[in-house]
Amino acid sequence: MHRAVTGAATLVPCVGIALSVVTAQAGVDLLVVSMVALVAVGAGWVVTIRLPSSAVGPALAWCSSAIVLISINDVLAASAYTSNPLPLASAARHFWVGAWPVNLAGLLILLLVFPDGMRSGRIWVAIPWVYAAGTTLMIVAMWDAQQTGGTVEGTSATWRTALSLVGILVVSACFIAAAVSMVKRYRAGDDRSRLQIRWLLAAGLVVMVLLAGGWAAEGLGASINAAYTPFLVAIVVLVPAAVWLAMVRHDLFDIDRLLSDGTALLVTLVASAAIFGGVVAVVSRSVGLASGWGAATAGFVTALVLLPLHRSVARVVGRLVDRDRFVAVAAVEGFASDVHAGRRQAEEIEAVLQEAQRDPDLRVALVRGNGWTDLAGQSVVEPAGFTVKTGGDTIARISLGWDSVRARRRLAELAKAAWVPLEVSRLRLVLKQALEDAEASRTRLVDAAATERKRLERELHDGAQQRIIATGMRLRSLQRGLSSTASAEVDTAIAELESTVAELRRLAHGVRPSRLDDGLRPALEGLLAASPIPVHLQVDCLPETDDTRTLTAFLVVSEAVTNALKHSRADHIAVRVGVQGDRLTVEVSDNGVGGIPASGLTAIRDRVASVGGGLRVHSPSGCGTTVSAVV
């Protein structure tokens, strides 16, 4: 059905071209209009083929073909008053003047069905029929009227004038209703349909401006052809082009900016002209200066206010016409403020930009060192997209899932509002990497120290200590054949060697207790067995842990128990070792006098911090002390 209607629209300009070629009475105007109309009809065919279920294609084709149809009727009707009338001229002359609403019939239908079909409801379905009735009233009012040199003759009767006025009102009401339909469709539509409607709105604004210019030109005495030709050309060329772009490539160009800047420029020009005229009137009439002074003053005042006026108008018009962009920028700016106030995390910026840009495939990559990373810190290949810079340095790159001129322009403005969260995210990643590097370096140092402790303990136990014992045994074997005086000297030497061995054992135990070879629980049991007061030990089932954490936990218990025995005056100590995630937890509590400051026990605190752990001391005065460590 739609292809048949579009095909009928195609025949009309073909007939116009044929009529222009066959008879000289048609003139060049009909040939030009028909050829231009064919281009517009071609756009209608593209839409019809790409979207066969849409009524926009046929309506688009008839936007231009309807104008050609009236132009053909004008040629036929004009020939009826010549000596060589064309076929159908006698019938066409009856409709010559009154059929002008047919020019706009295609545009009306286009407004009603664009971009996704006729709205449901009896009112909207009835509009084309009401328009047809209004057109009929105009034809009846102008029946047999003749147009000569741009002047309409034969409409002097009062009933014709009244009927013509009613027809004009009906036609105008139909276009107002179509505009209301478009507004309702825009408010209820999704992002795509709104963007498509903006394309038609941009073309409609130009058409209405040209129509208003045609009215003004006709009022100033211009011929009808001269007054309304730009208006008709806009309908034939501009409207089809805008509709084609809206239906096929709606996001190809930045229509929001075209609408915003064009409307702002138009409003600025009108306001500047009003200011100029007002100043001339005030200066020339009220002050009484010569008109030359009035014009000069008006020009000076207009020049002063022109730039700030245009900026203000552009800002206001932008908020009305391109509201989505302003709302999106405001959302990103609000997020940046929340990040600055600490209410939100900067790493949410990707989700915020996706929502503002309405692009779920948008991705943010940050610069880190010589490479790129996502917001989670995972390395990524260098992406393509919009580069965000601060201070001349690149900090991020934003890639779009749907790339277009409009999307890039909108993203550029969003990126200006988002650079602070982007920079905060990047600096956090850099700081996190630095902390991870420092933590890794510290872990390596602690592990190296633990390994060195273990090696030193083994060398003291298996090396020097064993050699000293062996030396003592050799001295004992040699002592048998010595005199009593010499034997006493050997006894003294052996006693010194035994004292040295005891000292070496004590040193080896301080470096790393050999009991740890059997596990943490046996080592702690041996440590606490010598306590002068009762000590309750609880060791949960522990996983396999590295020697560094095991040694640290042992030393924390040792130093905390020693500190309690020396200073707390407690009569009971409890020790508990457990697991929290992948870390060891150590808790040493007593029922002593307490009073240790929260920042106390510096030696234990530093030991725990050296392996990336944490220490907490709870010691209210008179209520005992609890030392808790996570290793």
Q: Estimate the strand proportion.
A: 5-15%
Order of helices and strands: HHHHHHEEHHHHHHHEEEEEHHHEHEEHEE
Overall structural class, as computed from helix and strand content, comes to alpha+beta
- Helix content range of the residues, please? 55-70%
Low-confidence stretches: none
How many runs of DSSP E, i.e. beta strands? 12
Overall morphology: rod-shaped
Count of separate DSSP helical elements: 18
Strand order of the largest sheet: 5-4-3-7-6
Could you report the average pLDDT, rounded to the nearest whole number?
A: 78
Q: What value does the Rg take, in angstroms?
A: 47 Å
How many domains? The number is 4
The end-to-end span amounts to 79 Å
| Main β sheet profile | 5 strands, antiparallel
Written overview of the protein:
- With 631 residues, this protein is of the alpha+beta class.
- Helix content is 67%, strand content 10%.
- It folds into four domains: 2-250, no CATH class; 251-321, no CATH class; 447-511; 520-630, Histidine kinase-like ATPase, C-terminal domain (Heat Shock Protein 90, 2-Layer Sandwich), CATH 3.30.565.
- The chain has helices at residues 2-22, 27-50, 56-79, 89-92, 105-113, 122-141, 158-188, 191-219, 224-248, 255-287, 291-321, 323-341, 349-357, 405-479, 484-511, 520-528, 547-567, 602-609; strands at 146-148, 151-153, 363-368, 371-373, 379-380, 386-390, 393-399, 535-539, 573-580, 583-590, 614-618, 625-630.
- α2 (27-50) packs parallel to α9, α5 runs parallel beside α7 (158-188) and α6 packs antiparallel against α7.
- The chain is rod-shaped and about 165 Å long.
- It starts with a helix and ends with a strand.
